[in-house]
Amino acid sequence: MIKLDDIRRHAAARPDAIALVDGPTRLSWAAFADAVDRFAAGLSARLPETRPARAVFLSGPRWELAVALAACATLGIPCTGLDPQEDPSRLEAVLGLLDPCAVFVTAEYRPLLAERTWPARSRALEIALDGPAEGDLGEPAADAAVSEGRARDAGTRPEPPLAPPAEVSTAPDSRPPNAPRPDAPVSCHRLMRTGPSRRLPEPLHGESLRLVPGARGPRIAVRRMAAEGRGLVDLVDEFGFEPGDVHLVAAPLWQSLSLQMAHTLLAVGATVVLDDTQDPETVAVLAAGEGATTAVIAPDVLGRLLAHPAAAMLAHSGRLRCVITPGRHLGRWTVNAAWERLGPVLHLAYGTPEAGLSMILTPEEAQVTRARTGRAVLGTTVAVLDGSGAVLPAGRPGRVAVAGHHVMDGYLDGEDAFVTLDAGTGEQRFFVTDDLGVLDERGRLTLVGRRSGVTRPVRDRAVDAALFRLEADLLNLPCLRDTAVVRVDLPALGVALVVPFIAVAVGREATGYRALRTACARRVPSIPAHVIAVDHIPYSPTGRIRTAELLEAVLPIISLNLQLEQSARQEISA
What we know:
The chain is α/β, with parallel strands linked by helices.
């Protein structure tokens, strides 16, 4: 996230310009600088003596989180976002790996921490991001130069009353430095009552940590900040970001693409608008009302937005020029509906926490290119490797490797996933991903398979490749809004495919059903397919399908259908 020195630079140039918008709260660059200064001073005074100092957050997008992240960046404290829908045991494993000394959390997610333990738990500072916590009630809230006094939506999330800058107390907080963790969390507003620092301590670290989702257990990607400036320049050049932009964040900031883009837009001095509702109508009204020019939108939110009548107001506003979303599982309906309802703005992104934003598919390219295709973003080199690690020529499928300024330096546990190669531009250090792909002569990469998610003893490469091609075929069907292909091995079904789909319109389910059954029989005839119409396919904000949640919803329906079919056959035979 952007550091205090950069915030002060923007505040000096445009003190009254708006940096952050969160519901009725409008934070100018001058107020943002003051809030981060005070928060960093208060946080530094309370941090325990143990090192390394790391922090985590469990929160949706909100201005208090942006202040906290900026304060952590200023102090050099890596602050890692956690997925609140993560399995509890996996969440505890992540906390054990990171061993945070500070936790930023909202009341909604605080129960997730109640039963979690990690080595520094007894000393960890817990900071409430959503208003006064127990023990802070009745005290004036901090710096509310934060609110520019332009609350426009009486129905938005209530915030503590904010005092003008002149009324903010500059007296130091009475709580002693390095005190033990209190039973109740400290309010972030209490931290922002700390007197502004005369001189902040030297940063403790120069790295960022990102949680890597996957089936092999939690891993943490480590990235030193030395290449951060060059990475920001590449993104600005790629998308043409400028201070006049208004950027909408409609994806949680623990998602690496969302945080990366918010950081980039703040770095150029643009306004960042935060949405924590995940409601399509709210997103549309907010984007149109604030005059959003760019946005990062989570895939499930984007799907519901495109199906909502309110999406029309974004096209009519004429301001929106760039919407970025993870595109691994998005198909033809999404591309076509976005063009029709938003205009030529949708950019499908491919990236990982290890490699950052690696590839992009522009709106024009998406009209003529199959799903899961894209070109490398500026500052990034993509290569395809064979089984021995050699670079393959165009047209040959292999394992995807990525080099560039956005790529991590390594894993926290020391696992090495890098090779040094010459892909035509001199020797570079490439991160070798778990994805399989093929490059064409124009340098466009198409994903053709994946290595992760299937254990080696049960891996069948021919079937894996067929399933991936099947999913690609289905994503390009114009009669479907969305679909997924999940291979299961369950007592009730045996080895089978579960293929949920969302029809392009109500009453069109029969067309989708026939198209999917035909495609499954053509691509994977050896595995029975259970095709079922659904209203919703759950995605994580990273673009991954939440398989467990999906199966929990559809398996009872499939079991009932099988029972009805069996009863019908018995009646016929009788």
